[in-house]
UniProtKB/TrEMBL annotation:
Keyword Transcription regulation carried by entry: no
Keywords: Membrane, Transmembrane, Transmembrane helix
Name recorded for this polypeptide: DUF6535 domain-containing protein
Protein source organism: Rhodocollybia butyracea
Transmembrane segments: 6-24, 61-83, 89-115
Organismal lineage: Eukaryota, Fungi, Dikarya, Basidiomycota, Agaricomycotina
Length: 123
């Protein structure tokens, strides 16, 4: 039951992230669409659209999508390890070791920019 819960939660989160990514792309395409009129009207409309993006906090929403995708991956891998333990302990250990390694690399890549300004691993 735990395994199914982890996998279905991972699936729902992944599909939700995909949906919101498509929606965000549409929102940004609308923002970038060609504006006709005088330069003053174009500037007014562009600022109006920008203010809308700010008011509705589109940038933080887009910024949260990778975090949710990472959460879905962790849930899926956790479910996979739990699933493999009774079937084949050696395989579960291998998958677990790979998962922990990937998670540690991700953690280091996330934390490293906090200590080194020139670090390119910004997430």
């Amino acid at each position: 039951l735990w395994i199914n819960g982890l996998w279905f939660t991972s699936l729902v989160i992944s599909l939700s992230v995909a949906l919101f990514a498509v929606l965000a792309k549409q929102w940004l395409r609308q923002y970038m669409s060609i504006i006709t009129g005088t330069p003053k009207e174009q500037a007014f409309i562009r600022q109006f659209r920008f203010d809308g993006l700010e008011k509705w906090r589109v940038q933080p929403l887009i910024g949260m999508l990778p975090t949710f995708l990472h959460l879905a991956l962790i849930l899926f891998l956790g479910g996979l390890i739990i699933f493999l333990v009774p079937l084949n302990t050696a395989m579960a250990c291998i998958v677990g070791a790979i998962s922990v390694t990937v998670d540690l690399i991700y953690l280091v890549a996330t934390v490293l920019p906090l200590f080194t300004v020139q670090c390119s691993y910004r997430t």
